[in-house]
Amino acid sequence: MAKKILIINGHPNKESLNHAFAEAYKKGAQQSNADVKCICIADLNFNPNLEFGYQKRTEHEPDLSDAWEKIKWADHLVWIHPVWWGGLPALMKGFIDRLFLPGFAFQYRENSMLWDKLLKGKTAHIITTLDQPSWYYWLVYGRPSVNQLKKSTLQFCGIAHVKVSYFGIIKNSTESKRLQWISEVEEFGKKLK
Length: 193
Known about the structure:
- The protein is α/β, with parallel strands linked by helices.
- It has a single domain, classed as Rossmann fold (3-Layer(aba) Sandwich).
- It has a five-stranded parallel beta sheet, sandwiched between helices.
- Strand 4 and strand 5 form a beta hairpin.
- Helix 1 runs parallel beside helix 6.
- The longest helix has 17 residues.
């Protein structure tokens, strides 16, 4: 049975390196006979603001309902995004806020601090771009985007195995370096990791 891969591109610019990474991963995964679906968050029509918090449910727009069905379908989620101001792009954060809700991705237990993790059995790979060395991002800033997406979102919801790959420094990279990185991401897709 083919592995079901969902690529989620969190960069709003289709001319970005992140977009090229999403295409490269897809190409590699298809060469390995994976079943691949993609979400480019910038293409979705939805309000990224969780207007009422958890006090009142905001109905999903059709694009969000479709995105959630893809997340449930997938065995492996590939998140591709830049690090901006140490964190996720605003639209990507809004996508997570609107979808990873109680009853969908997790469920708090009544009269308990514990919760049920509703996305168990899935794996993930975060591919992120930086304008600083990854060691500096970790040592000086503590990797806030990774802590947010990997630990506070994916692992919180039951996705225990999450790989992280960093690419940078983007702002000073040459075309040949970018092509090398794109090739590396295609290899990730071929290896389905």
